[in-house]
Fold this sequence. Notes:
Layout: E1 5-14, E2 17-27, E3 32-36, H1 43-51, E4 58-63, E5 66-67, H2 73-78, E6 81-84, H3 96-107, H4 118-134, H5 150-164, E7 168-172, H6 183-194, E8 200-204, H7 208-214, E9 217-222, E10 225-230, H8 232-237, H9 239-245
Amino acid sequence: MSASLRVEDLTIRFGGHVAVDAVSCAFQAGELTAIVGPNGAGKTTCFNLISGQLRPTDGHVFKAEREITNLSASARAKAGIGRAFQLTNLFPKLSVLENVRLAVQAQQGLGPVFFRRTSAYRNLRDAAFNYLQTTRLDAKAALPVTALSHGDQRKLEIALLLALKPDIFMFDEPTAGMSVDEAPVILELIEEIRRDRSKTILLVEHKMDVVRSLADRIIVLHNGALVADGKPDAIIALPLVRDIYLGMPAEKAS
């Protein structure tokens, strides 16, 4: 089976610092890969290279067999790479529903709907509302984004991603800053996406209980280099990973 996403010798330097160092790996549809490592390991920088926020110094990015190394972030999004950020990226003065309606509109390649038939506008709103139901936000559709909790804003980001219909989902610490009550809902939504075996999911996450519960595979980065890649139990059991890269005491890794 050909990879849905592949990077070859992916490298980026900032002056004399190598933030990502010749990383090569491939990702398959139906697989959730967790990318882990200590702070400064290059996880988010690697995400930025894949999603197009940064251009590599060396190396290549492929979506299926198409090279996308030189595509912009917006072009990669149109090609099916969906990215959720650590910091929410929403329109705060618009309602929750209108945020998602704009994403539906963009995915369908439509311009402003001011002069379109009322039915066309209604169809966009209906589709947007369906995504809010999926993400448990339908009761808050009319609220402005500023009225949402941090956890609900993260749910709204997932609604926007779903509306854009990517086949590759990228989540950068999706539960960061959430309360104990909010985090499980986000994890349930990611699990629902994971059940669609046509989707590829990349997840940057520090919480090892989250990684263990979701990941089919773990990649470990350290000083920008890929140092381990495999099934969760095998990777977590490695002394190198357990004691150094993840900072986990030995008794917690068993």
